[in-house]
Design a protein that fits this description.
about 45 residues; mainly beta; ATP-binding; ATP hydrolysis activity; ABC_transporter-like_ATP-bd
Length: about 45
């Protein structure tokens, strides 16, 4: 089974304000990751 690779992912709210700057993430097959943060901060967005 293949892992997951995100490369140069970005997000901006108004086309100007970057809330995620270029993000690259490699998750190997069988590896687990978690996202943590306060309620309402956009973890599932």
């Amino acid at each position: 089974m293949a892992g997951l690779k995100l490369q140069a992912v970005t997000k901006s709210w108004d086309g100007k304000t970057q809330v995620i700057k270029p993000l690259t993430l490699d998750v190997a097959d069988g590896e687990f990751i978690v996202m943590v943060g306060p309620s309402g901060c956009g973890k599932s967005t």
